[in-house]
Design brief:
This protein has about 260 residues and is an alpha+beta fold. The chain is built from 5 helices and 14 strands. It has a 4-stranded antiparallel sheet with strand order 3-6-1-14, with no helix packed on it. Helix 3 crosses helix 5 and helix 4 crosses helix 5.
């Protein structure tokens, strides 16, 4: 399916402020970016680089006053995600070097706290893909997906205690549980077609059967129509913008995902 994604961010900046943005999707095995635009008002110099996770990032210094960024992209992506019931668990000693890092605890995913709990949840599941499905099913039953949740910066342990959260929070809990079972897992941030309410979205991927598979505990069934912007250990690596200096938030954020009837 062809999707047209868009994101507009607007800021009121009190003084020259360095930013790192992560707003450009890159082509890969899961998606093809046929067209993209990146418009800043006022226009400023930008230096783009690829971070340690393979994400496209943009460095810029925003001047004092009103500043906005608008991005748009036409992307070919799968209308259904791959599913693989029965895909086996990969022994740690066989994992690719680049995947090993996603076994480790991280800032928002304290996997060492979930060993016993995760083992109980997946007790009746075959090792590998089916264990991750069992984790997602448990999260859907026990943790409320609340896009309006006001609890910021929750870790997986916090989400487990509060039993509610935004998409990022549910992804963190799934990642922590997977890692506690020695299943590599990473967060993904991007766009999801027909998400309601529309916003940027987070889900996670787990490595089983020799590859990454998509899992999303906020959705009742496997759904495609996804455009990835960034990958990381957890949300600390996939913020769509980081600014340095006095705290500053966007006063406007508009996200759109439209289905195109034909290739652009």
């Amino acid at each position: 399916m062809w999707l047209r994604t868009g994101c507009t961010l607007s800021f009121t900046v009190p003084g020259p402020t360095p930013f790192i943005m992560m707003l450009r999707a890159r082509s890969g095995a899961q998606q093809w970016v046929a067209r993209d635009t990146y418009t800043m008002t006022p226009s400023v110099p930008v230096l783009e680089f690829t971070d340690a996770y393979g994400n496209l990032c943009q460095r810029l210094v925003v001047p004092t006053g009103e500043f906005s960024i608008h991005t748009s992209a036409d992307v070919l992506t799968a209308d259904m995600i791959d599913v693989a019931p029965g895909a086996p668990f990969d022994d740690v000693q066989t994992l690719p070097d680049a995947v090993l890092t996603y076994l480790l605890p991280s800032r928002y995913c304290e996997s060492e706290q979930f060993n016993e709990m995760s083992a109980e949840i997946v007790a009746d599941a075959a090792p590998g893909y089916d264990q991750v499905v069992a984790i997602c099913d448990w999260i859907r039953r026990e943790v409320a997906f609340n896009p309006a949740s006001i609890h910021d910066h929750m870790t997986a342990a916090d989400v487990n205690r509060r039993r509610e959260g935004v998409c990022r929070d549910l992804a963190h809990l799934g990642i922590a549980m997977c890692r506690s079972l020695s299943i590599p897992a990473r967060i993904v941030v991007g766009y999801l077609h027909d998400l309601s309410p529309m916003d940027l979205h987070a889900w996670f991927e787990a490595w089983v059967g020799g590859r990454w598979y998509t899992f999303d505990a906020t959705q009742d069934a496997p759904r495609g129509g996804r455009v990835a912007l960034g990958y990381g250990h957890d949300a600390a690596q996939v913020a769509i913008f980081n600014q340095f200096g006095p705290a500053l938030a966007a006063h406007q954020m508009v996200v759109s995902v439209a289905l195109l009837e034909a290739a652009p």
